[in-house]
Amino acid sequence: MVRKQSRTQAPSEPLPERGPVESLIYWRDPKKSGPVFGGVLLILLALTYFSFISVVAYLSLFVLSGTIAFRIYKNIVQAVQKTGDGHPFKEQLELDVSLSHDKVKEVSEVAVAHINAGIVELRRLFLVEDLVDSIKFGVLLWTLTYLGAWFNGMTLIIIAWVALFTLPKVYETNKTQIDANLDIVRTKLAEITSKVKAAIPIGKKAEEKKEQ
Fold first, then answer.
1. Contact residues for 126 (Cβ-Cβ < 8 A; gap 6+)
2. Any idea which of 8-12, 31-35, 144-148 has the lowest mean pLDDT?
3. What is the pLDDT of residues 142-186, one digit of tens each?
4. Would you give the DSSP letter of residue 130?
5. How many other β-carbons are positioned within 10 Å of the β-carbon of residue 158?
6. What is the Cα–Cα distance from 43 to 206, expressed in whole angstroms?
7. With pLDDT > 90 as the criterion, what percentage of the chain qualifies?
8. What angle do CA 19, 33, 67 make, to 5 degrees?
9. In this structure, what is the dihedral angle of CA atoms 74, 80, 81, 83, given to the nearest 10 degrees?
10. What are the tens digits of pLDDT across the range 91-102?
11. CA dist list (Å): 149 to 50, 113, 141, 152, 155
12. Which of 51, 119, 156, 208 is most buried, with most CB under 10 Å away?
């Protein structure tokens, strides 16, 4: 007798584990991502209308008023109920908020490495080591002049913050379609770049020097 093989659906692949920052960006827990996204967005919007000092001062006053009110409320409750719960922020006061020397050193080393790599790349572009790359860099700078004319710095920061919390999730949801379109764009750009380099003698010389 021929046994009928039951078709079983392959179990969906579990989402990869991510760090706390990536979990916020990918909205793994909306209860955490929502307040972070909304709180920072409100602060950025406030900075567009008020000075940095005013925003920091009002925000600090708001937090201080809340903690003082909560401390007074807990003292009244303890006095009425005659309990000795102690300071309401005892756990927070006992938390170690000092920076670790190893962590600071690690972050500093990573930052210095990125800065050095950026300096080397800028030197390569400004001194025209590769003509095509320098031309593309020039086109990017020319585009940024129009971008700066349309938006101010704070508006760009707000757009970047919104994009940080939307684009990664959109890409994760539509990864297959986006990757297919990106491959087409990369292929076209590679063809155009190769044709430009083939038409420019300087580009050929630079490639020959790299191969040697």
1. 134
2. 8-12
3. 998 988 888 888 888 999 999 999 999 899 889 889 888 888 988
4. S
5. 17
6. 48
7. 38
8. 105
9. 60
10. 888 888 888 888
11. 21, 32, 13, 7, 12
12. 156
Closest among 16, 31, 41, 42 to 165, alpha carbons compared: 41
Listed in sequence order, the residues at least 6 apart from 36 whose beta carbon sits closer than 8 Å to its beta carbon are 24
Question: Residue 175 burial (CB < 10 Å; 0-12/13-18/19+)?
Answer: exposed
Look at the chain and count its residues. 212
8 alpha carbon, distance to own chain's centre:
39
Structure-block tokens of residue 204: 């050929």
Task: Say which residue the tokens 């986006």 belong to.
Answer: 178
Helix, strand and coil in the chain, % to nearest 5: 75, 0, 25
pLDDT at residue 45 is higher than 60 = yes
